[in-house]
Amino acid sequence: MVPVPSRKPVAPYMAIGLSTIVHGIAERKHIMVNLDIIEDNLHAAVDIVDINMPVKLIALAEGALTGFTDEAYDLPHRIAAKELFIDIPGPETDRLSNLAKEHDTYIVAQCKARWPEVIEGRFFNMMFVVSPKGKIVHKAAKNHVWSRENSCTPHDIYDRWVELFGEGIGAFYPVLRTEDIGNIGTICCSDGEYPEAVRALALNGAEVVYRPSEAMPMTGASYPGGGGWMVQNRGHAQFNSVYMICPNVGPIYLNPRVRHPVDIAGGNSHIVDYLGNVVSYSASGANTMVAAVIDIEALRNFRTMNLNSNWTKDLRTEVFRHMYDEPIHPRNLYLRREPYDHERADDTAREDIRRLVERGTYTAPSARHAGAKYHGDRMTRAKWKETRRLWEGWGDATG
Fold this sequence. Notes:
Blueprint: E1 13-19, E2 22-23, H1 31-49, E3 55-60, H2 69-72, H3 77-83, H4 91-103, E4 106-114, E5 123-130, E6 136-141, H5 158-165, H6 169-172, E7 175-177, E8 183-186, H7 195-203, E9 208-210, H8 227-240, E10 243-246, E11 252-253, E12 269-272, E13 278-282, E14 288-294, H9 296-305, H10 317-320, H11 342-359, H12 381-387
Helix pairs in contact: 1-4, 7-8
């Protein structure tokens, strides 16, 4: 018999995934423009949804606070860390703390942020959770980034990360355990391209997983919507018996001189239950939401009563143990230097591919063709100073 610990049951609750229109930033103060939009939409979402059941978890999209200026302009890492991104906690998270307290809810969010206790002069793509008391109760860093993102990851400074946090799955995939909304795990965008990410969270106890934002073409393939992003998140949920909350970023104004926003993600926010069913979906990402009931006790009963389709119980872990003995992507890449720009990062990716071909994992095609490459110009400090003029006088009256 499965032991039953003495604890209060977790009442069902509503979770909201919020999609908002975003303005790209050139200074940290510009984040307040996006926070104004988030605040208005969060109030509206709670007012609309909590008539059904109490709202206990609100999830923001990746990019909701800052947009993607650093990625779009290939901004040197140290400049972005110094001028654009936040500290956790800080004034930006304080505004979210006030909203969490006002609505008696948890807020889970993403923002690129400095983490000086870990390493100076770097920023990470970070997920964090604010409690209903307004406290930061969880922080985690994105472990996998796409080829146009210059964020530092734990693997990039592996030795330092292990020195501080250890090398167990909890060091790289921490889980927030709560008495009132269950156990919450957080990943972001590219993290979810790897089945191991949510499996690590699930093995660490996660019951609800936050995975914000994905862009075209991953969100646009297939019909009726969501593309590979939807397929992955339904698979994550089904393979690991977890809820997936997946809000997507709304249309983005890259800079204040852009007249019309570009919808790089195409909407397709969704919430998936622990059986892999889509229980809420929105084709639009323009200041809208997805919302669904999260029933933690039902999930816990499913995991402990079902002898068939709660797959984790049957894992033959020894069979897979040596699958990752040989490294693929080099660790500690940015322990001594700042992350590469796009062009140099592309070279690293090509080296990873070459390594897989030599190993026999990939079979090379019969003829070699030119592949994907970066088409932009290298961003310098002088060029960024000129580019920043696009934001002159913008956003000064916000907050």
